[in-house]
Amino acid sequence: MNSGQITLDELERDALTELVNIGVSRAAVSLRKMVGKPVLLSVPAVDIVTQNAAAALIGQRESDDLVAIRQEFGGAFAGQALLIFPESNSVDLVLAILGNDVEAADVTSLRDEALAETGNVILNGCLSTIANLLRQSLQMSLPKVIYGDGNFIFDVGVERENSGLVLFLYIDFSVQDRDIRGYIAMIMDLPSLATLKHLLGDFIARVTADSNWTLAPH
Amino acid sequence: MPTQQDSLDPTSLGSDLPELQRQLADAQRRLLLTLEAAGAAGAWRWDMGTQRLTADARFAVMTGQDPLELAEGVPTSRFFNGIHPGDVARVRIAVAGILAGAAVFSKDYRLLREDGGVRWIHADGGTILDDDDQPIEFIGTLVDVTDRKRTEDHLRIAQTAGQVGTFEHAAGYGTVSVSHQFCSLLGLHPTSALPVRTINLLVHPEDPQVIDRTAPAEARPGRNIEFRITRADTGEMRWLARRGEYVPDLEGRGFRYIGVIYDITESKRIEERLRLLNEALSESVRERTRERDQVWQNSRDLLTIIGANGLIRDLNPAWTSILGYKTSELVGRPFADLATDADRDAARMLASGEAGARRETIEFALPVADGSRRWFSWSATVDGDLTFAYGRDITAERQQAEILRETEDQLRQSQKMEAVGQLTGGIAHDFNNMLTGVIGSLDVMKRRIADRRYDDLGRFMDAAVTSAERAAALTHRLLAFSRRQSLDPKPTDVVQLIASMRDLLGRTLGEQITLETILTDHCWQAVTDANQLESAVLNLVINARDAMPDGGRLTISVANESLSNRSGGNDELTSGDYVVVSVADNGEGMPQEVIEKAFDPFFTTKPIGQGTGLGLSMIYGFARQSGGHVKLASVLGEGTSVSLYLPRNTDPERAAEPAPTVSTPRGRGESVLIVEDDAAVRLLVVAVLEELGYIAIEAPDGHHALPILQSGARVDLLISDVGLPGLNGRQLADMARLWRPELPVLFITGYAAMAATRADFLSPGMDMILKPFVVGDLASKIRTALGVTLE
After folding, report:
1. Mean pLDDT across A190-213
2. Residue B44 to chain A, least CA–CA distance (Å)
3. What ipTM was reported for this prediction?
């Protein structure tokens, strides 16, 4: 919630939450197509915190080791997107996606690949939707799976030119009757966040002006 | 259609319209009331293709729109009709999200009411997708949640104010629905759902976990628990309490636990501090009790607690160890009963607290079980009705004091015996000298009589008598020393006295010592007791002789000396004229420390048996009583000189009487009653009386004497021994005076003690003569006694 210089007001946070919701809804559709089962995704809240705070936050929530799928993004606003799960949950996620009849040995060997693909669907769906809705273009790198604790995942202790802030999103998965909790984090520097805030303002102006506003091609 | 037109009567239509409109309004109000009562949901359908909104009557009533219009379809902008201006933007954003592809629409917002108030509604909706997964319809329902909101507000405020965190956990689920307050109590970032694990990991390992993973079989109140947590943000340890209940899951699967947590750290801290204080207090009480108990148990003093009634309440074990009592047998008995009869009052005073109130210490003994007694020094303090008495065993101290007293008595006795030894030794020595004079003279006389040489007998008889008289005088001098017998100072020709002693002195000194006398012709007379002076000179001569064991020269000189204040210089001597008698030897002399002690009684440098140690002290006493002084000068190795200063006779009429011619006064047939239990003495006295011309009547004791005194027989004088069996001499004399008030009485006594009390003992017409006596003295006393009556 506290970002130091940049904060989002309530409407902006609502708007951003809504954008992410749209993104994960679309990602859920994609996942449903992948696994052939109903997939529900929802994002109840958004915070903006420092990287250290994000690491601490996830550290106090999740005492286990974590697994994260990381993708760089670039465009009007740039940074890193992370989909984070407790490592113990990741097997559930893989099984949910691959199906229960997969051999245990295959789960181990396929895990990173399955995670990377799942992450890509969710993060890509999420980010590209947001960019589209904000009428921006976005490029994304290939997903990368990393293991470690919160400090490691959020690069705590690493010197950076621009100290980044983290858009921290909670995400609830419900796949095949499995409750899987996870987090989406978007690490952006201050200029990118300022741009995002500006774009959110535009978005709010547009949707409140026209009740039938919808995703217009541009 | 025309048929229908025809069937309508415009007139009747026009007249019926107001009625119909009224009925419609009624129906609408009834519907509204019904809706209000039912609280039912209003439904909407947003067609994205046609951009038309349709909704049911409930939706229309809640949003304040015409149900008919909404049933037929209106522009989608009508969806936002009636929404509180503050909530419009939020709702528009959410709707935009749905239109753009978001899956879920779930919002709470306010609708304006006709009466100006607001109602809270919850809008729950979603999209319907076509085959290409593109949203084509946005449908959902509105539910009036005003009451719920109000309740929620109350709850939220209550929770915030009370810092109560709520949570809800369905059995078997890994996550818990939580309130923000719940999160902040745990130091977690505010959120609405937390993993069970996350919550439970914050709980202290020894404490029960917040979330029970096992659910009960039926609905029941949950266990109330208290537990410590480590706050996730600060690491601080806090105490929390949990309360809650299990309720059936609304979805019909098992149970949910709905509970609250709240911080109890402060009360725990106070509780803990109270507990610690309490423990410290208890511990200190225990400690004190233990200490006191130690004193009570281990004291070597008798400790007892006595009630106001004087009954013993408790006793410490010392009573058993010291006195051998069983304490259980004594408890309840009166304390005073423990003491012996003699000490009962003291014990009662102690038990009553009187002694304690006065802070007195009382000593009394208690009998020991074995029959002996032990002494205790008792003190007591009073506290309310109770008297606390402490008895310190002083038996050993008293025994030691007793031993000390006995030892002191023995020491005194032995000192006395030593003094007596020295005294008797010295007296024996002096007596031997005198007996030598008596026996020697008698021996010479005996041999001369055998040789029929009678010419010079008188000289030896005189020497024998003189020696014997000096022996008698010695006992008198002892009295003078010990009893301060008053002197009989008379003008005395000292030169003549010394000259008369010369023969005796010469014999006493022996052949190795040369005696020289320096006698001034014109010497003054001195006022002194001649006998005492003789004795003093003899003593000094003997001392001088003993100081010259290898022989030497002894000088006795008599000289006049006038002391002025200036020339005297001796504060012990008043100015005036003195006759000075000096006895000087050239013997060993005395060291200074001996000189300093020379006048002390019993001080002697001679071996035991060879001197009384009284000589110089007696001489000193004699000289001072005579109004003179003694000067001692001695140089070690050169000799000693002792000078007697005797005051000069300044009364010319009291010239020294010449030695009286021996003429024993004779009786004229007077009748004398002699009462004496010693037959030998009685015989002697009777013989003397008859020889002197008296008629003697004998009685051995008072018993025999009384009838004679009571009778009419002539009795001119009563001579009685003082120490008689039965009536003593004085009692006899008193009785005699009852019948013969003027009867003169002469007591004979051998007891030195009588001499000291002469004045107290004797009444007028009574006199006393000390044994031993010479016939002449007895004759004089008898004559004097009879003369008194005659006069």
Report:
1. 82
2. 15
3. 0.79
